[in-house]
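Homework help board

Subject: predicted structure for assignment chain

Our instructor gave us this sequence and asked us to write out the predicted structure in token form, then describe one feature. I got the tokens but I'm not sure how to describe them. Can anyone check?
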Amino acid sequence: MNSSLLRFFILVLTILFFSHLISVSPSFDAFNQEWIDKHTRNNGVTGIAKFLAVSVFLLSIGLPRQLVAFMGGMPLDLLKVSSIQH
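My token output:
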């Protein structure tokens, strides 16, 4: 009984610790279209590497892959509709 109660308290303390750590860390609100445009557009390989690094991190913490794909589609100009010649 005592070991299960001790495990429960350790679990609660761990959850509280990580919850506090997330609340004081910088938010991911800064990762928006403006940030992507500023750091990836016209920055060549460096811009693409920055975007991939941030994207991998955000995906690893659970951000939906569709959101990251949408955010990266416009500034990286993967599908240049305006450049299609008829």
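Reply (TA_rk): Your tokens look well-formed. For the description, you could write something like this. Helices lie at 2-24, 33-40, 44-60, 65-73. That's the kind of observation they're looking for.
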